[in-house]
Amino acid sequence: MPTENTNPEAILEAIRKIDVLSELLEDKNKNNLKMIAEGKEAGGKQIGPYARLLSYLPGEAVMHEGEWGGNTFYFSLDDELSVLAADADEPRKVGTLPAGTCFGEMSILAGVPRNATILSSDNGKSATVLEMVRPALRLLRSLKKFAERIDTTYRSHGLANTIDQLQAVTGDTLTTVDLVAVGSLSQFMAYGKHHLLVKEGTPIDRLILMRSGWLRRVRGVPIYKEVTEGAGAASSSLIPKDFLGAGNCLGLEALNGQTTWQYSAELMARSEVLEIPLTELRADRSLCERVGKAFAAFSLADDDTALAARADKTSLAAAEKEIATGIVDAVNLLVMDMDLCVRCGNCSLACHKVHGQSRLLRRGIHIERPVK
Is 343 among the domain residues? Predict the structure, then answer.
């Protein structure tokens, strides 16, 4: 077990050593700094601190590959950390972490297991790390250096992960060399709800591969928030539309001669996409042909670009509700009758048993018990 140093001054001194956190020491960020290093009391309850200074003995693990650790991330404070990755029967050392490196943050950002094992080097020296919990991430993202670093890491991870998924889906259609070329051309992007991904009548300048999330397509009318949400959103006979999720690729029709978008597409939730500029892709004609063939094999987006095959309004309304509530993306579904709830906590325990941590979100009216 690591040894914890609870002295706020020691935590402040550790923060001073980390370059991407240097802005946290500026006067305008003093409240955030205090919350991270010392915490505060509010309503009779202690909130924070969000950071802990931990020392690990030589050879002791900070985190293990494959474990779910979505509530903590770390900063190295010296050069005594080794990085190990699974290789056949036993882990293999693949590198070291220099001082000031942020690690473990992808478990929070992407909701994925740890992708490496981090050990205190077995050289007779203890290693010290600064551990932070999830709420600190929101405060740290206001720092320019940290935000840029996190954005770069997230994009790099997302791009590599998407290329790996393409390799599994396309099989022999795209070679490893092809996938490396596609990766070098592409840009991994994350957009928020209501982002207008494509606009009807504008030139098709890129392929857009949906990695996660959902979009709605409409034709003949501009997309406005009041049109795409609310009572008339799923029932207007004036708006032929459909819904597309992960695995679909927009813009493939451009490879067959179509020059402009025949529809508008708006995101229904936060979504991640891979964007491939057509100008650069067309520079390699043979690669362009192989990419078009491979993507068309699994994407439905180019099957009906005129949105002529309209589903009935009842089906569209049901589909929109499933997407909006998130049920359509569920792997495990826990149904609870809140009229019978006695707050025993078994729902959270069941969620924890399946995922390794509780991911349960309660939506709706929250009524707190009276304080005795």
Answer: no
Same domain for 164 and 116, yes or no, is: no
Q: Are residues 126 and 207 in the same domain?
A: no
Q: Looking at residue 10, what is its pLDDT?
A: 93
Q: What is the pLDDT of residues 22-35, one digit of tens each?
A: 999 999 999 999 99
184 plus 259 within the same structural domain:
yes
Contacts of 117 by beta carbon, 8 Å cutoff, 6+ apart: 61, 63, 64, 65, 83, 84, 85, 91
- Does 342 reside within a domain? no
Same domain for 291 and 313: yes
Provide the domain count of the chain.
Answer: 2
Q: Are residues 33 and 164 in the same domain?
A: no
Contact 90, 137 (CB under 8 A): no
Query: Per-residue confidence at 359, pLDDT binned at 50, 70, 90?
Result: low
On whether both 162 and 310 belong to a single domain, the answer is yes
Q: What is the pLDDT of residues 244-299, one digit of tens each?
A: 999 999 999 999 899 999 999 999 888 999 999 999 999 999 999 999 999 999 88
Asked if 75 and 209 sit in the same domain, the reply is: no
One domain, residues 262 and 174 = yes
Q: Which range has the top average pLDDT, 69-73, 108-112, 156-160? A: 156-160
Global pTM value: 0.73
Three-state SS across the chain?
CCEEECCHHHHHHHHHCCHHHHHHHCHHHHHHHHHHHCCEEECCEEECCCEEEEEECCCCEEECCCCCCCCEEEEECCCCEEEEEEECCEEEEEEEECCCCEECCHHHHCCCCCCCEEEECCCCCCEEEEEEEHHHHHHHCCCHHHHHHHHHHHHHHHHHHHHHHHHHHHCCCCCHHHHHHHHHHCEEEEECCCCEEECCCCECCEEEEEEECCEEEECCCCCCHHHHCCCCCCCCCCCCEEEECCCCEECHHHHHCCCECCCEEEECCCEEEEEEEHHHHHCCHHHHHHHHHHHHHHCCCCCCCCCCCCCCHHHHHHHHHHHHHCHHHCCCCCCCCHHHCCCCCHHHHHHHHHHCCCCCCCCCCCCCCCCC
Percent over 90 (pLDDT), the chain? 53
- Which domain covers residue 120, as residue numbers? 3-141
